[in-house]
Amino acid sequence: MENRKIPNEVINAAAEWWMKRISGKVKHDNGDDSFGSVFAGMLADEGVKPLTDAQLQKFKNSLVMRLSEKAGRGMDFLHLDCDYAPDAVLSDSARNADIPRDNFPWKVHMAITGDTVEVSDRYGMPWVKIWPIEHKDEAKEGAA
Description:
Strand 3 (117-121) and strand 4 form a beta hairpin. The chain has one domain: Actin, Chain A, domain 4. The chain is built from five helices and four strands. Helices cover 45% and strands 15% of the residues. The chain has a four-stranded antiparallel sheet with strand order 1-2-3-4, with helices on one face. By secondary structure, the chain is α+β, with helices and mostly antiparallel strands.
C-alpha cells in the first residue's frame, strides 16, 4: 500500500531542476582557492561532456522513478547530494542515461519535502526555495 507524502509535482520539479543543472556548462568549485583545489576543478571541468536531449530526458525520467519509489514508501523528506560526485540516486539515474559524473557540479544539495524543493547550489551558498516559485504579483497581493 502506497503512503505517499511527497506529490508527483514536487518530484517532477526536483528532477527538472537537476536535468537543467547538468545540461549546461558545469564549473567545479569546492570553495577552496588553493592551487590543488583549483587544478582539481579544472581537471573535472575537462571531463564534462555535451549531453543530448534524449540523455537528459532519460536521466530525468529515471530520477523521477527513483524519487517516486522513495516517496511511495512514505518518506516525507528526500535529500539529493552532489559533494564531489553524485549520490546513489543521482548516480544511478545518470548511469542509466550514460551521463558521466563530471557533468555534475560539486557541493550541491537539495531538500525535497511534501510542499517545497530547496537547493544550496555550490559551496557556502544559502538555501533557496526553487519550488513552488513565488510570483512577484502574488507576493504583492498577499501583502495588500
